[in-house]
Amino acid sequence: MRTVGVEEELLLVDPETGDPQARSSAVLAHAALDDPDQHVFEKELHNQMLEFATHPQSGMEELRAEILRCRKEAARHAGESGCTVAALATSPLPVSPAVGVGRRYQWMARQYGIATQEQLVLGCHVHVSVESDEEAVAVVDRIQPWLSVLSALSANSPFWQGKDTRYSSYRSRVWQRWPSAGPTEPFRSAERYHRRVADMVATGVILDEGMIYFDARLSRRYPTVEIRVADVCLHADTAVLVATLARGLVETAARQWRAGREPMGHSVSLLRLAAWRAARSGLTEELLHPATMRRLPAETVVRALLHHIGDALADNGDLDRAREACAEQLRRGNGAQVQRELMERTGSLRDVVTECVRHTQV
Fold first, then answer.
1. What's residue 83's pLDDT?
2. How far apart are CA 282 and CA 148, in angstroms?
3. Are the C-beta atoms of residues 247 and 143 closer than 8 Å to each other?
4. Cα 34 from Cα 25, distance rounded (Å)
5. Residue 37 confidence (pLDDT)
6. 278: closest CA among 115, 125, 156?
7. Is the dihedral of CA 187, 191, 193, 199 positive or negative?
């Protein structure tokens, strides 16, 4: 069975006001004092962000437990630094992002100007194990059309600088400002994938391979495919659902490759439209069906994803759980819907943030 790991980026906020706090260095210092050998928490581009990575897991209950453990540990270390954490993919409240002082981050600030300043956005990256680079590239080629559905399920960024954006995942629209971000056409071999990456680095537009921000890419550090389209999810259960579906997609794509089935081969132009539609609508309106690229109700498209990966989910023992979790997500709504409902009920973005702090750890 393929293992799955999750990386989450959390927003550091004042526990009373909800204002973002640039205290990642202090939080990491407390984490290091607690465990000098810890490799769970890391700095990110902005000082208002904190990232953690789970260990690879085969069982989704174990993955859920670890996500919750890491979120609670992050909150504990943040509390020791006078702040707390919120699983929000953008800050609902106005913020002046503070770019980290590291050489890499300062290079990005000089190279990309205001686009770097605006990248206070927080995602959820899912790593699924693969057997080889050839299998990984075959998977990347075949999962592209389905990634917009993961984006819709995870959407958790309706507000930006104090305003409602009219998007469900505005984070994904901001993320597209990086020159290497977005969907890709089929590579068809590991050699072609690695040659493309080398050519992109050779342009000097990006600093190194770590700035290959494809929607799905081969990890530099692990034998995994890394799927990068999801917002950080308000609820841990949603992150587990995204990880479950991601593993199903990877396994289904690998089986298709071994059976000699070609990728659907949609153009990048259509994939970008599907991603935009998912970011705009989330689960409240229509999405583009990954096979036909035509509009259908979000619930219909989610069911199509479950059908597409049903055999792999069943073989992993995940089918019933995935069906129930998708039904619950459609009933309750994604993080964007929860945030908007909180705003409608309270009339206060500060209350939205402080209430989402509570949601982060349950």
1. 97
2. 9
3. no
4. 14
5. 66
6. 156
7. negative
Cα 132 from chain centroid (whole Å) = 23
Buried b (16+ CB within 10 A) or exposed e, 18-44: bbbbbbbebbbebbeeeeeeeebbbbb
Helices (H), the chain: 24-34, 60-79, 103-112, 114-117, 133-143, 147-154, 170-175, 190-202, 236-258, 268-281, 298-308, 310-315, 319-332, 335-346, 349-360
How many whole angstroms separate alpha carbon 193 and alpha carbon 202? Answer: 14
Contact in structure between 41 and 71 (CB atoms under 8 Å) = no
Q: Which of the 8 DSSP states describes residue 92?
A: S
User: Can you tell me the distance from the alpha carbon of 258 to that of 171, in angstroms, rounded to the nearest whole number?
Assistant: 35
One-letter amino acid for residue 95 of the chain: V
List of the chain residues with pLDDT < 50 = none
Does residue 8 contact residue 236 with C-beta atoms inside 8 Å? no
Tell me the C-alpha distance between 362 and 265, whole Å.
40
Which residue type, as a one-letter code, is found at position 24? Answer: S
**CB 289, CB 304: distance < 8 Å:** yes
- Closest by CA to 282, choosing from 175, 167, 186, 178, is 167
- Cα(88)–Cα(360) distance, rounded to whole angstroms? 9
For residues 46 and 99, is the Cβ–Cβ distance under 8 A?
Answer: yes
C-alpha angle 356-165-274 in degrees, rounded to nearest 5: 100
pTM: 0.97
For residue 86, which phi and psi values (nearest 5 degrees)?
-135, 135
Report the Cα 148 to chain-centroid distance in Å: 11
* Residue among 49, 99, 67 nearest 233 (CA): 67
